[in-house]
Amino acid sequence: MDQQTSRVDVGIVGGGPAGLMTALLLKRRGISAAVVERRSQEAIRTTQRAGILEAPTVDMLVDAEIGSRVLTEGHEHEGTVLSFDGVQHRIDFQELVGRSVWLYPQNEVFRDLATAWQAEGGEIHWEADDVAVEGLESEAPVITFTDAAGEPGRIEAQLIVGADGSRSMCRRLIPDEVRTDYFTSYPFAWFGILCEAPPTAPELIYANSEVGFALISQRNEDITRMYFQCDPDTDPESWSEEAIFDHIQQVLGGEEVVQLKRGRIIEKTVLPFRSYVCDPLTHGRLVLAGDAGHTVPPTGAKGLNLAFSDVRALVPRIVEFLEGLTGGEGLTAGADDVGSGPGAPADLTAPLRRYSATSLDRVWKAQNFSWWATNLLHRAPDEDEFAHHRRRGEFRAITGSVHGQAYFADSYTGWAGDRHD
Ligand SMILES: Cc1cc2nc3c(=O)[nH]c(=O)nc-3n(C[C@H](O)[C@H](O)[C@H](O)COP(=O)(O)OP(=O)(O)OC[C@H]3O[C@@H](n4cnc5c(N)ncnc54)[C@H](O)[C@@H]3O)c2cc1C
Q1: 125 is known as an active-site residue
Q2: pLDDT tens digits for 24-67?
Q3: Which of 91, 99, 166, 207 has the most CB within a 10 Å radius?
Q4: DSSP 289-341
Q5: Alpha helix (H) ranges present in 120-273?
Q6: Is 377:211 a contact under the CB 8 Å cutoff?
Q7: Which domain holds residue 327?
Q8: Angle at 11 between CA 6 and CA 16, to 5 degrees
Q9: List of residues 6+ apart from 236 with CB closer than 8 A
Q10: Which residues on neighbouring strands pair with residue 13, listed in sequence order?
Q11: Ligand 1 site, residue 18, Cβ cutoff 6 A
Q12: Is residue 56 lining ligand 1, measured as CB closer than 6 Å?
């Protein structure tokens, strides 16, 4: 073995939440892993993304002893506010389904995971270039890359986890004749801002009006995250600070409904969104996790949580797969072990296919909720008056009934009893 070659059980492409959480949980099971990440730590840590964690996601961080900052610095939200044409309705998660969500930005989740992985001596190559995966149909898959110093690197593994986000290179390694891509797009995007302002309200406000959607989220006591619906081709610089806040205030309703807290805008981005699912999430010695296998529009706050639920489902199946390789007793032949009749060799990748089926089951539930919430809360550019009033009727059906509210609360907080482990 030369200096640039590592041999591990599992090679992971992508050092985002899915990749790092997988690496850490595998290590807890005595399984070695190495991670290759294209970006720098600083670049990932300073990119604004998710903010809402479901309770099982929080439990995973705490149970894996990754740190308790999520509990000390995160904020529990026992409900959220839905607003339509300036009329607000609070959805009380605790009262309706007995669960909360936590506001803890993805930047902090990433920081906790990266700190833990590196503090425990985990192998990770930041700023890797030319990342490639070979040998997926062999017994010895390999990740090759050029490291930050320009030196070639090589990771030899038994299995590769593709956790390389929504533009996944790994996903394209599943042959076209095996892979089905399910996809839909939307005629709008989110204009996101980060501004120096205190929270406008104690909980998130999802608002809709005749001029479209806005979300008042949070970051901390001094910084606020807000979004509003825009055309996907919008140039962020074409909106002045004043125009942005006036528009968001208009979506929320008048100042007598809620007074928007304004402040200097420190970041503006336009975020087109789409729904995508790759089926299956595995092929040969490759398995996909997180956004690499599926993306959702951010309205339902599901993306990061799906990445974590993938990892929860995946890690036990990787253990089973590796035990199968060594003839361990942990390999249980499942009903989907096609061709493994009496005398036939066991299909070693069956646990990985079971992971794919389990994960996709949850993914489609999340796709449905994210699609539904997006269409409920946004105004399509070609929406006519009938469609607007129909949507208001749907909104009233949700907010005006305890059953409708419970549907929203159950979905938003992550579905009771839907744990994989
Ligand atoms: C604006 C916004 C708001 C969001 N809000 C929410 C929310 O409130 N709640 C929620 O749950 N989700 C939310 N999401 C979604 C959430 O951010 C993602 O679902 C989450 O980041 C998925 O994690 P991941 O690890 O699968 O992918 P990523 O976080 O994208 O990580 C993938 C990593 O792989 C690396 N990579 C890519 N290609 C390669 C390669 N070839 N080689 C090596 N490395 C590679 C990337 O640099 C990246 O670091 C939001 C997303 C956005 C953009």
Answers
A1: no
A2: 999 999 999 999 999 999 999 998 888 899 999 999 999 988 87
A3: 207
A4: -GGGTEE--GGGS-HHHHHHHHHHHHHHHHHHHHHHHTT-TT----TT-TT--
A5: 241-252
A6: no
A7: 5-60+103-182+274-378
A8: 120
A9: 191, 268, 269, 270
A10: 36, 162
A11: yes
A12: no
Number of structural domains found in the chain? 1
Q: Tens of pLDDT along 234-280? A: 999 999 999 999 999 999 998 999 999 999 999 999 999 899 999 99
Structure-token pair, residue 168? 């996944």
pLDDT in tens, 344-364: 456 899 999 999 999 999 999
Nearest CA to ligand 1 atom 29: 16
Sign of the Cα torsion 332, 337, 342, 343 reads negative
Q: How confident is the model at residue 416 (pLDDT cuts 50, 70, 90)?
A: confident
Beta strands in 111-234 (DSSP E): 123-125, 129-134, 142-146, 152-156, 159-162, 180-195, 205-209, 212-216, 224-230
Angle of helix 350-377 versus helix 385-399 axis, rounded to 10: 110
| The pairing of beta strand 265-279 with beta strand 224-230 | unpaired
Q: Is residue 148 part of a domain?
A: yes
**149: which residues sit within 8 A by CB, 6+ positions away?**
none
* CA 166 / ligand 1 centre spacing (Å): 7
Backbone angles phi, psi at 67, to 5 degrees: 130, 155
123 to each of 12, 62, 108, 148, how far by Cα in Å? 10, 22, 21, 14
Q: Is residue 294 part of a domain?
A: yes
Question: In this structure, are residues 36 and 184 in contact, taking their beta carbons and an 8 Å threshold?
Answer: no
Count CB neighbours of 167 within 10 A.
10
Tens digit of pLDDT for each residue in 285-295?
A: 999 999 999 99
Say if CB 294 and CB 276 are below 8 A apart.
yes
Does residue 411 sit within a domain?
Answer: no
Length of the chain: 421
In this prediction, what percent of the chain has a pLDDT beyond 70?
Answer: 94
284 CB within 6 A, ligand 1: no
Residue 266: partners with Cβ closer than 8 Å, 6 or more residues away:
194, 195, 196, 223
Q: Residue 339: is its pLDDT beyond 50?
A: no
16 inside domain: yes
Answer whether 19's CB lies under 8 Å from 37's CB.
Answer: yes
Mutation choice for ligand 1 from 49, 125, 305, 311, CB with most ligand atoms inside 8 A: 49
Distance of CA 406 to the CA centre of its chain: 23
